[in-house]
């Protein structure tokens, strides 16, 4: 009997890192679960990914590469480049079957690098430096295997990311036919529950994927009891399948992982300054500007579902009532969609008279600094699958204003101040309470210190136990 392989599909993580240098919510979930799972010292753990140029899935055994820095996006990108999974060498992959085209386009890129033609590389999400490194050395990819050649009956494939594309689905069906057990993590059902606030075009794709997932999924994983309820109702309504196995693995209430960007503060601290002074000294100017005044922090993609429009209106309501000593509101997140009314409000009021600041690109080190120095955070989303920023806030000993819907009470427990996400007055009242009743805020903070918060090792341990039950 062969030793089962546990294979994590990182296809979407690979695609994300081609164009991004910082993790967002789902990517952080993927890498942190993988990072902690490796620490359990389980043998025969692999990663796999869809390789567009060859139109097939490839796999890599992690025991053979000794890499354990998944929490650091810069190190992960370098690791993936080493094996040609991302990077400049992929520019030529599609020409490998035509030797003339291969050498012609290689010469084109060589000449562009020689002439310092950055634009040619930037369009591909790369740089001249990356191209030169690739031309100097490309590690032999003998450790990369074709997934179809190595999977066997009873192997377990873990799908933690968005795996909606039809190419992926067909591969999962083929694996299922070989007796492979497939575990599908459903982060939320927002595209089918709230299509009006979803990126156009996503809802039909998501619906089709979720319907088809029944045909290959051995066990569904959900990140909250609320998502489990939503998934069960969906499957019962649209597939009449009431027997699908669904397990809940709650996510975390933990601070940001220490990675290269945070460690850099200490390495550059030649004056042996205390950590706080060192981190402030190395912070981006936009971050330093925020630290000058008291502030409340909101973290998450700036899109309609996050409800930042009503959050800013709550600040405006309090200002209109004469509460001019309000702390500033700092909104941190990548720019999202369907948010014209939010930006109209920001432009029309001069960023609410200077009370509101938005940051769309921030390092983990600077975000860590903002969490440490905020009065509290706010997350008033219309709906969430879990709510990582609430857990992150709690891990820093801070409380939050949180919408009382979906999974959010599972994260915030009795440690935060709840509000109605659809009521500006309710949001404003909760903000007012935490700002102007410091004793109440301190009571919540004291309760947080006495509470055992969930961490990534808990998540990895829960996943391991679920996998064991399928042996």
From TrEMBL:
Keywords: Transferase
Pfam families reported for this sequence: Glycos_transf_1
GO MF entries: glycosyltransferase activity
Superkingdom of the organism of origin: Bacteria
Keyword Transferase found: yes
InterPro entries documented for this protein: Glyco_trans_1 (IPR001296)
Domain Glycosyl transferase family: 293-449
Protein known as: Glycosyl transferase family 1 domain-containing protein
Organism: Snodgrassella alvi
């Amino acid at each position: 009997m062969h030793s089962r392989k546990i294979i994590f599909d990182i296809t979407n993580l690979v695609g994300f890192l081609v164009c991004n240098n910082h993790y967002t919510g789902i990517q952080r979930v993927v890498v942190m679960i993988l990072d902690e799972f490796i620490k359990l010292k389980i043998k025969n753990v692999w990663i796999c990914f869809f390789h567009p140029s060859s139109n097939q899935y490839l796999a890599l055994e992690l025991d053979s590469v000794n890499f354990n820095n998944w929490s650091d996006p810069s190190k992960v990108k370098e690791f993936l480049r080493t094996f040609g999974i991302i990077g400049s060498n992929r520019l030529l992959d599609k020409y490998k079957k035509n030797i003339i085209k291969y050498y012609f386009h290689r010469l084109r890129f060589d000449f562009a690098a020689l002439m310092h033609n950055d634009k040619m590389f930037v369009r591909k999400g790369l740089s001249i430096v990356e191209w030169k490194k690739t031309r100097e050395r490309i590690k032999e990819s003998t450790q990369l295997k074709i997934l179809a050649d190595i999977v066997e009956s009873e192997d377990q494939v873990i799908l933690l990311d968005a795996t909606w594309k039809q190419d992926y689905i067909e591969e999962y069906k083929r694996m299922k036919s070989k007796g492979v057990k497939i575990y599908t993590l459903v982060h939320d059902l927002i595209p089918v529950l709230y299509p009006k606030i979803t990126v156009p075009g996503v809802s039909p794709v998501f619906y089709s994927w979720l319907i088809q997932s029944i045909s290959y999924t051995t066990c569904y994983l959900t990140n909250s009891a609320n998502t489990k309820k939503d998934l069960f109702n969906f499957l019962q309504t649209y597939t009449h399948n009431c027997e699908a196995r669904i397990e809940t693995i709650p996510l975390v209430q933990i601070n940001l992982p220490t990675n290269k960007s945070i460690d850099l503060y200490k390495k550059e601290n030649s004056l042996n300054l205390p950590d706080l002074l060192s981190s402030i000294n190395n912070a981006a100017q936009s971050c330093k500007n925020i630290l000058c005044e008291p502030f409340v922090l909101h973290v998450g993609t700036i899109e309609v579902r996050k409800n930042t429009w009503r959050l800013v209106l709550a600040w405006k309501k309090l200002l209109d009532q004469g509460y001019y000593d309000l702390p500033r509101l700092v909104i941190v997140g990548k720019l999202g969609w369907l948010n014209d009314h939010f930006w109209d409000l920001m432009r029309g009021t001069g960023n609410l008279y200077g009370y509101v600041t938005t940051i769309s690109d921030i390092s983990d080190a600077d975000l860590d600094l903002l969490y440490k120095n905020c009065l509290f955070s706010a997350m008033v989303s219309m709906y969430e699958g879990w709510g990582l920023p609430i857990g992150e806030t709690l891990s820093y000993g801070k409380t939050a204003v949180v919408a009382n819907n979906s999974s959010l009470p599972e994260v915030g427990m009795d440690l935060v101040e709840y509000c109605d996400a659809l009521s500006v007055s309710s949001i404003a009242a909760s903000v007012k309470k935490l700002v102007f009743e410091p004793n109440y805020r301190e009571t919540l903070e004291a309760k947080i210190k006495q509470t055992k918060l969930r961490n990534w090792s808990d998540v990895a341990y829960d996943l391991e136990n679920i996998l064991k039950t399928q042996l």
